Every structure is written in C-alpha cells, then in structure tokens.
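Example record

Each entry pairs one chain with its bound ligand, PBG.
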Amino acid sequence: MARGLEGRALRLGTRTSPMAMGQARDVADRIFEICPDLDVQVIGIETSGDRWQGDLAELGGKGAFMKEIDRALVMGVVDAAVHCLKDVPGDIPPPPGTCFAAYLERDDVHDAVVWRNGSPFRSLDELPPGTSIGTSSVRRKAQLLRHRPDLHVDRIRGNVNSRLARLDAEHRFEALVLAAAGLRRIGMDDRIGEVLSLDVMCPAVGAGVIGLQCRGSDAAVVELLRLLDHAETRVHVRAERAMLHALQGHCNSPIAGHCHTTPDGQLSLIGMVFTREGGQFAYAHEWDTPNRAEELGAYVASVLGRKGARDIIRGIPH
Ligand SMILES: NCc1[nH]cc(CCC(=O)O)c1CC(=O)O
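Structure tokens for the complex follow.
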C-alpha cells in the first residue's frame, strides 16, 4: 500500500466520453499494478463543453471541458483528474493549489484521415476540388487548407464516437481528420486511413499526452502519481506549453507545436501559427538542451512573434 493512502479510496475524475472513460480506466489499471490494495474508482463528470453542441468559443473555449472537473478536484469530490493535455487551455491558469503530478509517456502525435464508410478515396491528394472534410479543430482546418485550399472544411462537434457515427450516416463529409492516438484509445484503429505526416499536419501542443492533476497539498496522491510520470514527456510538454503560454493564444487560435528529442540528445521545438484559412502562417524551429525546455518554448514564441504570429492571433476573432 502506498504511504498515506491506507483506508482511502483514490477517486479519478474524468469526462464522460468513451475516450476519456477508457483513458481513466487505463490509468486506474496502472495504479492497480503499483498498488493492488488501493481502491481506485473512476468517476465520470459531465462538463459544459460536452453538453454544448455549438461553437466552443461561445462557452469561453476549451476551459469548458475543465471547469466542472476542476471544481470536483478542488472541493475534494475526486482526488485526481485525468486529462488529455491537448484539451487543457494554455491561456487560463489551473486552479490554485492543483498541479500536474504526472504526464504519461506520450502516445502517437499524428493526425489521420478517417474516410466515411464506402468512400472510394485513400489519400487527400486524390480528392476532387470542393470535397467536404469535417473537423472542429481550427489547427487542422488551417493546415488542411494550407495544402488543399480547394477543399471544403467544415465544423463537426461531439465526441469521437458520435462524430464517426455521423460521418457514416449523414454523407455530409467525405472524411474527418482525427488523432490516431484517440482512435486507438476507443478501439477504432481500423478507421485510421491516411496518416498525415508532421510536415502536412503539425500536431497540437500536448498532443498524445495524458496529464494527471491533483491537489498539491495531498502528498500521498502526489507521491503515488509521480510514479507514473515520464520524464522525457514532461520536458517536451514544458517546452510546448511555455511556447503556447507566451503566444497567449486562445481557443480559436490555430497554433501547432511539437517538441522531440533528437538522436544527439537536443530538444527540437517547432511552432506554427496560422490564419484561419491557412493562407498565411508563421513557422519557427529552434533547438536547445533538455534543461532549458521553458527557455526554448519562450524563444520559439518570440521568433514566431517576430515573424508575425502576434498579428495573426490578434486578427482572429474570439
Ligand atoms: N479534442 C479532443 C481530443 N483530445 C485528445 C484527443 C486525442 C488524443 C490526444 O491527442 O491526446 C482528442 C481527439 C482528437 O483530437 O481527435
């Protein structure tokens, strides 16, 4: 038994979508491996972001997926929250007294095309002009249009399972663009079509990373969750999120960022900021040593700023 957790249950709070519940159960299984005596419970919390089917910006952005879970954590209704880091906003500070005690090892960061059932196509390059593609991500829309300005990219919301069901039922879109990692997490690997290269589709900051958040004062839980932390992923997350923070992007800003470690042990960070239709963008790629992740993130943001990123972000309505 982990020190300080005798007689306690560990309640993991998460969103209620199949992906979120699946992720939280995986985290519960990992904790069970370390601590077989601990009673780990997964508690689904419906957030306003999940209930609302309109434009997220009208709800104040991605924070709409956090509010109810933040509250449950701060109030002690749950002991830890399981989040896709990609959905944790960069411009809203986490509630005081909470911390991310662990970042799980990063999963695949690639986005993939998912064709509607019966689609004759196998690659974006084959699509005739005017073909409709569905995504609710401003980052994906901008990059799709950057490569294929002749495509028609439109919004589709809801959790991944319901989006896939609508893709097949409605014939409104030829395909969707979704995270390969997310599709695998819900057991829909077989729907992964063309996997887009990172040059064509630079990932979101924090893509493929699950973060475990808890109350900083809850030493026993902090100590337990720390055992799941992946040091290299944490360094990459620090660099990417320092960049996001310095750019002061909001939920409507098409921002992409990807940090990795090069074979010679350097940190590489790419940052991109796009206009909404992908017609203009700023790009920066810089390197530094792993102990300077935050400095690297701030530096990439400043280079992007010099290349016009701030004007691009300011010009986007939100
Ligand atoms: N915004 C929803 C969301 N949040 C995290 C993932 C996938 C897994 C990840 O990248 O962490 C997804 C689905 C998607 O973008 O297709």
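The domain at 238-311 is CATH 3.30.160.40 (Double Stranded RNA Binding Domain).
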